[in-house]
């Protein structure tokens, strides 16, 4: 019988990390990240939430106010996500990178994408969603019922907080399992090359380009 996601209790802050949180995250080598937005168009739909979690289960939810200072809306988060010493692990990094760049001016690097890694490693299936990965690789059953909720509401309900924390609580463990598969099948170099291209694809998305590699 599948297990539930880890019981992570996140801290919730407004607009940016605290100095204490930043110092703690700067001391790690990798961090899991996700975002929640008002919709799926980064140019139209505002960023509402940024979730972070490290291997110790230290989770933070950063609520992004509607009218943040446009010059440096989240300077501590920017410092963390642009640090070349820390690997940032996403699921479907293409969307999150475009969102963070457009709304907060953050150019994230270096990047790892579990969805991309899954598509390269798990060629025995067409199911590469986070819920599918968690069940297949970690035997964890995720509840995705809160995905389509109003993340811009004045206050988050407990179910939203639990959902948002769960989305980042397993990404680092999933990365480990996917890396083992990539190494086993001799596909790690290809995956790393793909991760390096994702920031460029995110920039193309923001600029309105589609299928630039097609004939």
3D structure, described in words:
The protein has 215 residues and is α/β, with parallel strands linked by helices. It has eight helices and six strands, in the order E-H-E-E-E-H-E-H-E-H-H-H-H-H. Strand 5 (87-90), helix 3 and strand 6 (111-113) form a beta-alpha-beta unit. It is globular. The mean pLDDT is 95.
Using the CA coordinates, give the radius of gyration.
Answer: 17 Å
Percent helix, as a range, is: 40-55%
Q: Mean pLDDT, nearest integer?
A: 95
Strand content: 5-15%
Number of domains: 1
Q: What is the name of the CATH topology? A: Nucleotidyltransferase, domain 5
Uncertain parts:
none
Distance between the termini: 47 Å
Strand order of the largest sheet: 1-4-3-2-5-6
Structural class based on helices, strands and sheet pairing: alpha/beta
From the spread of the alpha carbons, the general shape counts as globular
Question: Strand count, sense and closure of the main sheet?
Answer: 6 strands, mixed
- Name of the top-level CATH class: Alpha Beta
CATH architectural designation = 2-Layer Sandwich
Task: Give me the number of helical elements.
Answer: 8
Helix and strand succession?
A: EHEEEHEHEHHHHH
Tell me the total number of β-strands. 6
Spell out the CATH superfamily: Ribonuclease H-like superfamily/Ribonuclease H
Helix and strand arrangement:
Elements: E1 11-14, H1 19-26, E2 30-37, E3 47-53, E4 59-63, H2 75-81, E5 87-90, H3 93-104, E6 111-113, H4 114-121, H5 130-138, H6 158-169, H7 171-184, H8 188-207
Helix pairs in contact: 3-8, 4-7, 5-7
